User: What shape does this take?
Amino acid sequence: MGWVAGYSPGHFGPAVNDVNVILVAGGTGRRFGGTVAKQFQLLGGRPMLVVTASRFVGLPRLARLIVVVAPDAIDRCASLLAPLGLPLRFAPAGAERQHSVASGIAALDPDCAVVAVHDAARPLVRPAAIEACLAAARITGAAILATPVPDTVKQAKDGRIVATIPRGELWLAQTPQAFEVDVLRRAHAAAPSDLVATDDAALVERLGLPVAIVAGDASNRKITTPEDLRWAEAALVIS
Assistant: This one.
């Protein structure tokens, strides 16, 4: 991976609306538990999906926000998101995250140049970080938000440590992950049918293409458990 830092929102080429965002919101929230899907859990009095989508309001050059959700949730999501005034389109979620992203790719605008893929379960991403990631993708072809690993990392087997992994070159991947549209399409088309990737950058890496890292921050935490949601509630109040 390459390293890209120091971005401020800038102007790359003609100011045309050529950005699409794929917002992945099709998860069932098995690890979260309960009867309410994670994306509909309330955060600051609003469904998490709405909080996340609101981070893209005012994004420069945004032409389309493609929300990937379970087919039976599309009408509900459309009603929830309509007040934000975003240029929405909906696509059906698949069995795995990778399939959901592929569904979003199929729904891209024909003239889309750059696409960002973001998890609906990361509701506190900073708009400036989104712009920085998109800017890096225009230069490198692919870019992700990530944070350095802060803790000592151990490799273990059968409950015992077998190695300490040097952390100096380790990063924790976040979303959004942004790509030139042809790069993302090629990466998904080349993925074996039995491969289940946990992020899109991994598919691009398989092609031998560079993926830049843009420094993210801890506020862009993925909400996986009820404890994460309580943390996000507190962080939302502070921010």
